[in-house]
Amino acid sequence: MMNFAIYKSFPYQILFLLCIGVSLFANYELTFSIWFLTLLVTIKRKYSVTILRYIAVFLAILLVAIFSTLFSKTTAFLFIRDFTYLVKPILGLLVGYQLCRFSSKLALKVLVYTGLVISLLHLVMLFFTIIEFRTISVNLLRQHGGYFSDYEIYVLIILIFYKNLNVEISHKQRTILILVIGLSSFLYLARTNLIQFIILYVGLKGYLIYSQKSLKVILSVLFFIILGYTAIVYLKPKREGKGIQAFLYKIKIAPEEAFKTRINKEDWKDFNDNYRSFENIIAVKQVSSKGTRAVLFGEGLGSTLNLGRKVWTNDNEYVQYIPIVHNGYMTLFLKSGLLGVLLLLVFLVILYRQKKSNIEAVQAINYLLIGSSVFLIVSNWVFLGLYLKLDNKSIIIGFLIAIREVMIREHNSQKSIANEY
């Protein structure tokens, strides 16, 4: 009977690994196809009000963008392309929710060991990159190994708080997993992953829920962050520096990079270092110039941002008109206006407001979701949040929601059995 149970869940484990792992290949068409096919083959008979409520918000954003399209000109290709972009969070949430067909203990192991596979693949990619180019350049390693991995940070947090989540794992296995996944996560040298780790760690401690103690902890964390940043500025890392110096330089320019309001387009250093801010400035000017309707409801599906010059993208394209920008809020402002941005904020508020539970593992999941909500505020600003083409956080959130429901059912079942005796 046990063998049959393991065999029955095995296809879902493979599908989960596939849906997470496909994002490593930087091919959005492939990612969307695998997620969509997985959605079709794993459809459930029942869905909780919670997951439907989250999906409803993103569906409303999509509908606003479709409505705006009625007042603009576009092509079938551009319309379909943007449709797939805006439907991605819905797809990810449903796929993650539908793939959780395990006990809570097995589901958590699936999360952890998928993280191990992803980390090993990343380390192998980095190894061959170093062998091929015979250098340890930060930009080169990130270009060939990937720019970030939100998934691995989630797994690290789960391993650190394994007792709270009731993850059944030996001390030796946990140590090895933390070392391998931790090394892989560090080698992405991603500022957002560092921020993500801090936010999720503080979140799992319960300090993202207001209290006098949490306020003191958050202020202390902010103090040490400012202290660390001051030290980095004092070190004066160079833009053309190699290794860790290049990473420190990116941290140094981070506050200005995403919030600068004036950029000298003729100065290539200023333009490249603050390109995210440049996108934001252009987005606000372009949409605002289209009138009140565009500001409120956006320019619709198929709309593009005119940068005024051609730039080289991470997709290895030289383009002037781009369908999405790094900033998720600005992307929605372009497609669905202020209403779309407001709806995204509604989602973040709903995700943050998790109902308190007396079940420790369930409350730990709640803390993880609360941390995800706070991190998404940052992620949406610098890296499109759940709308990023290579992002898999929507699957993680959907999976966590399903795990929580399984945990509650298991607890109630055990409680019912205990009452019978």
From TrEMBL:
Which regions span the lipid bilayer?
A: 12-39, 51-71, 83-100, 112-131, 151-169, 176-202, 214-235, 332-352, 364-388
Q: Sorted alphabetically, which keywords does the UniProt record give? A: Membrane, Transmembrane, Transmembrane helix
Protein origin, superkingdom:
Bacteria
Asked whether the UniProt record includes Thylakoid among its keywords, one would answer no
- Its protein name is O-antigen ligase domain-containing protein
What organism is this sequence from?
Answer: Flavobacterium geliluteum
